[in-house]
Specification:
Radius of gyration of chain A: 21 Å
Number of helices of chain A: 15
Low-confidence stretches of chain A: 290-334, 388-394
Distance between the termini of chain A: 35 Å
Structural class of chain A: alpha/beta
Oligomer: homodimer
Number of strands of chain A: 12
Helix content of chain A: 25-40%
Mean pLDDT of chain A: 84
Strand order of the largest sheet of chain A: 1-2-6-5-4-3-7-8-9
Largest interface: A-B, 17 and 17 residues
Shape of chain A: globular
């Protein structure tokens, strides 16, 4: 079981929010810092010193700013759902990059239900839309929450099909930002009958690079992901890949190869996703006893790991051996950045390739993360954040 | 390797043809009898005595009748391709129910080429027909013979696509019978540029029950079977099942579940067939080193097995144990017939369930086969021949 800490009181909860709202600090680093310093307050105190050679100050969120955000949330009738909240999605807790805090509008208790994600193309066919509605409705009647991303096309149809039984829209921006605008009416209905949730701050406008991050929540809180129509390079394929990494069932409805919208689904089936023709196929697929096993890359924070002696870095990693010290040549931050790319790179590989001792490397990576240059992703890997050029995916 | 006998001379070849043309004697029994008696002549001599309690004579083909058939074949410009003929399809030799003799029209040397079968719905969609033509053409250019059954729809389109590179039509009746009549033009083209083959006698009109038998040749001579559009209960599904039993690759092009013609293909993919989107997928599928392994149910006739002491039955099966003799209660042929059905039943299971000793059972089964009541199928199994009611399948 997980023994990550949970906020002790309202004040602690605000500190959690301050920490995760601090510029560029992602969930993976949030939990790493919590593991090391135990409380959000202690992390906040330590944060400025973590980056010794920084020119500018780290943008730590001010207490007044997060208090204002919480007030605004309450005035919207929303709920702050921290990692310890009763309504926090149970499967989401397993993730290495579980969001420390979610904000939600609507019937938040739905988030506790066992869930199936239905995602797919925005420019879906009539058949695709029909499948999305029908599957969502049938699976809803079987007691499943239907989770999706409130995009046009398949996502919207899936939400519609499950309005009566329960649906969760995980949005890419703040929960108060309706995107796309054309889904305003659906947004209103879900806010009334379902639940809208996000880890992003209120008012945050969704950007292309937010969507993969949001997608991990859609798959992560679900037992399986059904993909209905998807081109090869699409956000749905990213969700499916994340689902596989998270140990979730991936399922797809096939299509004739002549339709480009079937390419993604067929590709998923080729690489092991279940071929789905009816809601019964999904129930059969999920019928196998669902083990609450840790998906690959998941790490838990255990209390016995917290009091570590090493303080030279963010992780109590094994001390560099004599051998790694021999190859330890000075490397300027520039060359470290060259080793990073849009594809995840393991921190261990980075250490080997750069010759930087692990403790020092982790310290530098923390700087790069706080600068907004990199992002930590599950499996102790990092990616370089590339602005623009990704819009076509979403 | 196989060491089934091959005809020693033209006279022996005629005896082979007499034996396989004898009423209701199928290939499995042909090889069993050859195993026991070594030559077709010896089997023909023994045939009347094999059924001791028969009322009527067994309809053994007359020498004049098969001589006339061969004359007719030659006058059509056809070729008699016995099991030992150079052009006999190599993979077909592996089958337990390999046809002892084929008749063929056209470029018989094509039958030696490595082959892929393309089969599917008669009422195919425009996309399905396009796929059949395109895949046949592309695979033909890669050096594959394209084998199919000359049916309307997918079969016809596959033959058309491979007319220039090489195609084999395995027909359900005699090679001189054009069925369906609407494919007369295509039949003529294949006879000219490809090859038409059958194990059925010249002039034989195809009947519903002939088609599964023909389908085993389509799959059996091919390295893999590609199914393009097929309803769940269709001849293409039978071909795919036979292909699996024969150890051939099964491959299918998926389709949207809304189209009933995609049900068969999707079902095949669910049960392990490769999902195919392009000819390259097929080449990749077949690229794995093809082992000339014996598919399940295949038996070879080895010379050292031929001289057996037991003569009480067709098989030198182990003698009944004391236990089976205790439960050996007399069973009238009627009750044996009750145990048989349209689905294959293992002879061993029949022995257990009927209490008839195996040697006696095999003798009775031979009678039933010669009567036309049952048919032997690979894997030492038998099926009851049900007339009519199967037309919908083909």
């Amino acid at each position: 079981m997980f023994d990550r800490p949970i906020p002790r009181d309202e004040n602690d909860q605000l500190n959690w929010l301050r920490l995760i709202r601090s510029a560029n600090l992602g969930p993976v680093s949030f939990w790493k810092l919590m593991e090391q310093f135990e409380t959000a307050e202690a992390v906040l105190d330590a944060l400025p010193s973590l980056s010794k050679c920084r020119k500018k100050e780290i943008a730590v969120a001010k207490p007044s700013s997060v208090a204002r955000e919480v007030d605004e949330l309450l005035s919207l009738g929303g709920t702050l759902i921290d990692y310890g909240h009763d309504d926090y999605p149970p499967l989401l807790r397993q993730l290495e990059d579980a969001p420390p805090v979610l904000m939600a509008l609507g019937r938040t208790q739905l988030l506790k239900k066992r869930s199936i994600a239905i995602v797919g193309a925005r420019n879906a066919s009539a058949n695709g839309l029909m499948h999305a509605r029908d599957f969502a409705s049938a699976l809803g009647q079987q007691g499943f929450l239907i989770t999706s991303g409130l995009a046009r096309g398949i996502d919207a149809a899936a939400h519609e099909g499950a309005l009566h039984s329960g649906t969760a829209a995980l949005v890419g921006g703040g929960i108060d930002v309706v995107y796309p605008r054309s889904n305003q009416l659906l947004y209103d209905k879900i806010r009334e009958a379902g639940v809208i949730a996000s880890e992003m701050p209120l008012g945050c406008q969704p950007q292309a690079r937010h969507f993969p991050r949001r997608n991990r929540l859609v798959s992560g809180m679900s037992r399986g992901v059904l993909v209905i129509e998807a081109s090869l390079r699409s956000g749905s394929m990213i969700t499916a890949r994340l689902a596989q990494e998270q140990g979730r069932e991936t399922m797809a409805i096939p299509g004739n190869p002549v339709d480009p919208r079937s390419k993604g689904c067929n590709q998923l089936i080729k690489s092991g996703a279940a071929l789905i023709e009816s809601p019964d196929d999904i129930l059969e697929q999920l019928h196998r006893p669902f083990e609450n096993q840790e998906p690959p890359g998941t790490k838990t924070v255990s209390s016995d790991k917290r009091n570590r002696s090493g303080t030279s870095g963010l992780n109590a990693e094994p001390k560099p051996t004599a051998e790694t010290e021999i190859v330890n040549i000075p490397v300027c931050p520039g060359s470290l950045s060259d080793l990073l790319g849009a594809e995840p790179v393991a921190v261990d590989d980075l250490a080997r390739q750069s010759g930087i001792p692990l403790a020092e490397l982790n310290s530098r990576l923390m700087e790069l993360e706080l600068e907004g240059t990199i992002e930590r992703v599950p499996g102790n890997r990092v990616i370089k954040i590339v602005s623009g050029g990704k819009g076509g995916l979403f």
